[in-house]
């Protein structure tokens, strides 16, 4: 629409010369020369001084090409602008897409709050030092390794030569039989004998600093928040204990395979009965939230109370 008006102005100026170059007049009417993408162009300045109209179509074509490839603008235009510097009909109505935020800036996050009925319950601010920390895969790996090693029972046990039942007599003479020399039938090479250097009950736990363990949980929560897989509920109240209540809500979730529900206090009895037959929904209290459970579930559902308790736990000084 703009270029049509400029072209008409140009044709009119060729038939009826005016006191000023037509391209400059058209630009003054529809905006500055920056709209053509060639602000300060030598051809345009020559046209302005010498009225050389022979090169104007090339300038127009060049300006149209630059305008089509142009993505940034320093002007702020609104439909309510008082001046007629730009036609309001050309202003787009689409929402401007903001760039993705940078993770790990320790900025507080604002997240909507809902419930199992998808009702709007306002918003909640998540602490930036808990839900927006730099991602460290090495720390996550070490914390998971520590957690799996610590939960290993270590009750495996085998019998040594002194614990195996059997005789202590020498099976045969030391010499003269042509057989190998032996002193007991409870050795590891005989059937029913002992196991040499076998496992005995022990602890498989490894040492890890509390600061690293706490940082691992913060990183796991940050990852879920950055992926958009962190959902905050106002409460975990269900109308009935029927499983269909959880199934209906699960079917509405997109790109979700397993859900971890974190309750702040004691787990509600209706919620426990509604999820006990679903292998893809697990419930734990906030005191039991850990890195390995977060990684096993791709979606994290937390109540307001659970978020507050987790933040309080992360802010509590570590006893030296």
Automatic annotation (TrEMBL):
<protein>
    <recommendedName>
        <fullName>Large ribosomal subunit protein uL4m</fullName>
    </recommendedName>
</protein>
<dbReference type="GO" id="GO:1990904">
    <property type="term" value="C:ribonucleoprotein complex"/>
</dbReference>
<comment type="similarity">
    <text>Belongs to the universal ribosomal protein uL4 family.</text>
</comment>
<dbReference type="InterPro" id="IPR013005">
    <property type="entry name" value="Ribosomal_uL4-like"/>
</dbReference>
<dbReference type="GO" id="GO:0003735">
    <property type="term" value="F:structural constituent of ribosome"/>
</dbReference>
<dbReference type="Pfam" id="PF00573">
    <property type="entry name" value="Ribosomal_L4"/>
</dbReference>
<dbReference type="GO" id="GO:0003729">
    <property type="term" value="F:mRNA binding"/>
</dbReference>
<dbReference type="InterPro" id="IPR002136">
    <property type="entry name" value="Ribosomal_uL4"/>
</dbReference>
<keyword id="KW-0687">Ribonucleoprotein</keyword>
<dbReference type="GO" id="GO:0006412">
    <property type="term" value="P:translation"/>
</dbReference>
<feature type="region of interest" description="Disordered">
    <location>
        <begin position="157"/>
        <end position="184"/>
    </location>
</feature>
<keyword id="KW-0689">Ribosomal protein</keyword>
<dbReference type="GO" id="GO:0005840">
    <property type="term" value="C:ribosome"/>
</dbReference>
<dbReference type="InterPro" id="IPR023574">
    <property type="entry name" value="Ribosomal_uL4_dom_sf"/>
</dbReference>
């Amino acid at each position: 629409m703009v270029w049509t008006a400029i072209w008409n102005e140009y044709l009119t100026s060729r038939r009826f010369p005016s006191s000023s170059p037509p391209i400059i007049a058209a630009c003054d009417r529809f905006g500055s020369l920056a709209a053509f993408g060639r602000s300060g162009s030598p051809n345009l300045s020559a046209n302005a001084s010498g009225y050389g109209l022979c090169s104007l179509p090339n300038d127009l074509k060049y300006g149209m090409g630059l305008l089509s490839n142009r993505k940034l603008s320093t002007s702020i235009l609104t439909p309510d602008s008082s001046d007629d510097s730009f036609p309001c009909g050309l202003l787009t109505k689409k929402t401007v897409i903001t760039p993705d935020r940078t993770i790990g800036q320790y900025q507080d996050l604002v997240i909507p709050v809902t419930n199992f009925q998808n009702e709007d319950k306002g918003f909640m601010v998540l602490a930036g030092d808990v839900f927006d920390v730099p991602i460290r895969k090495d720390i996550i790996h070490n914390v998971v390794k520590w957690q799996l090693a610590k939960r290993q029972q270590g009750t495996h046990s085998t019998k040594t030569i002194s614990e195996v039942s059997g005789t202590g007599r020498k099976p045969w003479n030391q010499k003269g039989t042509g057989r190998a020399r032996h002193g007991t039938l409870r050795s590891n090479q005989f059937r029913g004998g002992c196991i040499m250097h076998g496992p005995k009950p022990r602890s498989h736990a490894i040492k890890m600093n509390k600061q690293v363990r706490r940082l691992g949980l913060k990183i796991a929560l940050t990852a879920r928040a950055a992926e958009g897989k962190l959902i905050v509920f106002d409460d975990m109240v269900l109308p009935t204990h029927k499983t269909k209540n959880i199934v209906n809500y699960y079917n509405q979730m997109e790109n979700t395979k397993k859900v971890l529900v974190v309750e702040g206090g004691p787990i509600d009895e209706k919620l426990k009965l509604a999820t006990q037959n679903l292998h893809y929904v697990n419930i734990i209290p906030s005191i039991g939230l850990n890195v390995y459970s977060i990684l096993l579930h791709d979606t994290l559902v937390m109540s307001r109370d659970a978020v507050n308790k987790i933040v309080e736990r992360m802010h509590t000084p570590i006893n030296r």
